[in-house]
Amino acid sequence: MDSRTAPAESRTETKTEPETDATAGRAAAHERAARPSDDTDAHPSHDTAARPPLLRELLLVVGLFVVYKIGRQLATGHTAEAFRNADRVWDWERALHLPGEGAVQNALLHSDTLVHIANTYYATVHFPATVAFLVWLYLKRPAHYVWARRVLAAVTGAALAGHLLFPLAPPRLLKAAGLLDTGQVYGPTVYGAHPATDAVANQFAAMPSLHFGWALMVAIGLIAATRSRWRWLWLLHPLVTLLVIVGTANHYWLDAIVAAALLGIALAVIRLPQPTTTAGRVQERADNSVQVMPELVGAGR
Question: How many helices (H) and strands (E) does the chain have?
Answer without folding.
Answer: 12, 0
